[in-house]
Amino acid sequence: HAECDAIIAESSAKLERSTVVAVTDGASAVDSSRTSSGTYFDLGAHKVIGRIENRLATLVDWPFNKGESVQVMRYEPGEKYSPHYDYFDPKDPGSARHTQNGQRVATLIMYLSDVEEGGSTGFPDIGLHVIPKKGSVLFFSYAEASKESKSLHEGSPVIAGTKWIATKWLRS
Questions:
Q1: CA-based end-to-end distance of the chain
Q2: Residue 45: predicted pLDDT
Q3: How far apart are CA 87 and CA 49, in angstroms?
Q4: Contact (Cβ atoms closer than 8 angstroms) between residue 168 and residue 68
Q5: How many angstroms from the chain centroid is the CA of residue 134?
């Protein structure tokens, strides 16, 4: 819990409106499908996050340098992230600039806080909702950039409280 609190404290002053990747050109764009605030931490740039990244690499047996920078996000009441896939769809023209260092193949969501109500991570295709629990991690993989991966997921709207997560994407 102390690590979660340290990441939240370090992130709070750096938050900006979250963006999505535009399918047309790959640029970052503000979109109503994602209403959180967030920030990134470069690989190994923060002591606590570096320790966590090393533990995660060991846990999932994936090289540290084959992961993206950790993204920390805060969701206030009413904020959400509509259903989406984390991989870059090869059919979208904007994906090419994001897959030069490999396609995303897995997601790790670290829950930095409990949420009073709402804010689950939902998987509509399989009817699963994961309730945020401070200090826990959700891992899911998608070996191919395909809807058959059943990795469609959403950050359900927060109803009460604040949801803090840190996300790390693994690359091929």
A1: 31
A2: 79
A3: 23
A4: yes
A5: 15
Neighbours of 147 (CB within 10 A): 12
The rounded distance, in Å, linking the Cα atoms of 31 and 13 is 22
pLDDT digits (tens, 9 = 90+) for 131-146: 999 999 999 999 888 9
Which letter, b or e, does each residue of 50-78 get, where b requires 16 or more Cβ atoms within 10 Å of its Cβ?
bebbeebbeeeebeeeebbbbbbbbbebe
Beta-strand relationship, 121-123 and 37-41: unpaired
Tokens coding 78:
């009413």
CA 94: distance to chain centroid? 19
Per the structure block, which two tokens stand in for 76?
Answer: 């206030």
- Rounded (10°) CA dihedral 88, 52, 16, 159: 90
Q: How many C-beta neighbours within 10 Å does residue 91 have?
A: 8
What's residue 1's pLDDT?
Answer: 97
Q: Which residue has the tokens 């939240």?
A: 8
Record the tokens describing residue 120, joined without a space: 């689950």
- Got the DSSP string for 65-79? GGBPPEEEEEE-TT-
